[in-house]
Design brief:
heterodimer; A: 355 residues; alpha/beta; Purple Acid Phosphatase, chain A, domain 2; six-stranded mixed β-sheet; globular; B: 135 residues; mainly alpha; Cytochrome Bc1 Complex, Chain D, domain 2; two-stranded antiparallel ribbon; 2 strands
């Protein structure tokens, strides 16, 4: 058993001293160190065009800040995952402006499709710029799978709307009752089965999707309709971790062998489903919520995260520019992700109580 | 009696007020339905305003951050809004949101849109006990 102390962010650099995060982590290495690495995760920037070259400033600032902080990570992350929803209404202008800001990243970026990138032209422009909507890759002994989990029923997609703009605007309203539940779909599930058939069951698997591959709250699509089928495909593997965007808040869970982690948005936070009094929700009891956001601070309750992969398990470090950072780490003893500071009920602070 | 009330209902709200007989507290199931339906129109109008990209100047809508009006907590107003340093009613906080994230102009407190927004937010929170001042 060895202890490694690593400083993840270099002191100095382009940002004000107060916003630098002098993070260091003490890491227990009890496996194959070749599998240990970090990657960063940025998600949900919702770049929104006002007109012409004018965009909503607040959302721009969130992405610019995440990119700048990410570039300061030391040691460097091996790559960055972008978790979907670059754009608000999937306009080419929004995707281009978002990618322009993301191009400042000094790392390779793996992209995930979000519904706000998709429902205008069914992902055509996004794919033209970024390529496949689902794919897999291997990195230092970990098998990564990217899914497009924001598809829905064909009847909804193809038969209901007079234009792509109308379809996009309906799906963009999280609470729009005319929306439709997300799904991975049969085609990708078949592909996933085939992709994983070549992989040894002891190989750590990381799945990247936009929507949660677990069922939390259907009204706001904190939900994937065929999540159970996808989980069944992942069940035979020893160590599986799913990362998703979409929810704009901290969520984590453990279902069987699968650990789930959500990403913060760079744009704005969303309420926990429990604060909507008219519908039942299934927020994982394991989740210690993020602090309630203070709207007077533009970046509060937004942020990005980096993931420390060690022996196939993930520790998620939430970088929250206007709040205390949070760490949700896999606890080998309990076999589930836990907040390293606030997991016990009696350690929680008033802003973590949502109602 | 019954005949008079039917006439009133048929004549609609405005006429009902104008032509009301001198019996102050007489109202029927039908009156209740009318009043409820007037309220529901305000709720529906509130939902329209809440999702209207034209409410502000930058296309941002209220429901972008507050799906179903969640995380507004109408039941806690009036309350001390720490960022403003005083006790305010919900409408003042709504105006803060219109001015800042939406980059719009504040609404008069009796603007029908302001009333409708509050009808919508409060209706989405129905069933929750009043708890003025809570944070």
């Amino acid at each position: 058993m060895t202890f490694n102390r690593r400083s993840l962010l270099r002191a100095g650099g382009g940002l004000a001293a107060g916003s630098l995060l002098p993070l260091s982590i003490v890491k227990l290495a009890f496996g194959d160190e070749a599998q240990d690495f970090t990657f960063a995760f940025i998600s949900d920037s919702h770049i929104q065009q006002i007109k012409g070259t004018e965009f909503v400033r607040n959302w721009d600032r969130g992405l610019i800040r995440a990119v700048a902080e990410c570039n300061l990570m030391r040691p460097r992350p091996d790559f960055v995952v972008y978790g979907g929803d670059i754009a608000q209404l999937a306009k080419p202008e929004e995707i281009d402006h978002g990618l322009d800001m993301l191009s400042a990243l000094r790392y390779d970026v793996k992209y995930v499709m979000g519904e706000h990138d998709y429902y205008l032209d069914l992902g055509e422009y996004w794919s033209k710029q970024l390529g496949d909507q689902y794919y897999s890759f291997d990195h230092k002994g970990v098998h990564f799978v990217v899914l497009n989990s924001i598809l829905t029923y064909d009847d909804w997609t193809f038969n209901r709307w007079s234009s792509g703009e109308e379809r996009m605007s309906v799906m963009a309203g999280l609470d729009d009752p005319r929306g439709s539940p997300f799904m991975v779909g049969e085609k990708q599930r078949k592909w996933l089965k085939k992709d994983l058939s070549k992989i040894d069951k002891s190989t750590p698997i990381v799945v990247l999707s936009h929507s949660p591959l677990q069922k939390i709250f259907r009204n706001w699509n904190f939900w994937t309709e065929d999540a159970d089928d996808v989980q069944a495909i992942l069940a035979p593997f020893d160590k599986v971790t799913v990362f998703y965007g979409h929810v704009h808040q901290i969520q984590y869970n453990q279902i069987g062998n699968i650990a789930f982690h959500s990403a913060m948005a760079t744009a704005w936070p969303w309420p926990y489903p429990g604060s909507y009094a008219q519908a039942a929700n299934h927020l994982p009891v394991l989740t210690v919520p993020m602090n309630r956001g203070d709207p007077f601070f533009e970046r509060d309750a937004t942020g990005w995260q980096f993931i420390d992969m060690h022996t196939g398990r993930a520790d998620v470090h939430y970088s929250l520019p206007q709040n205390e950072n949070r760490v949700v780490a896999f606890n080998e003893k309990t076999g589930r992700p836990e907040d390293t500071e606030f997991q016990d009920e009696d350690t929680r602070i008033p802003p973590q109580f949502h109602y | 009696m019954k005949f008079a009330h039917t006439l009133l209902a048929a004549a609609g709200m405005a006429a009902a007020f104008a032509a009301a007989p001198a019996r102050a507290d007489n109202f029927t199931e039908q009156d209740l339905e009318i009043w409820q339906s007037e309220f529901q129109s305000a709720v529906a109008r509130g939902r329209e305003v809440f999702t209207d990209p034209k409410l502000g100047s930058n296309g941002v809508t209220c429901n972008q951050c507050h799906p179903n009006g969640a995380n507004i907590h109408p039941e806690t107003y009036p309350k001390f809004q720490k960022q403003l340093g005083k006790v305010i009613v919900m409408a003042e906080m709504i105006n803060w949101c219109i001015l800042n994230p939406l980059k719009g102009d504040r609404l008069d407190l009796n603007d029908p849109r302001m009333v409708a927004i509050q009808a919508y937010i409060t209706y989405e929170r129905r069933g929750i006990p009043l708890e003025a001042g809570k944070h």
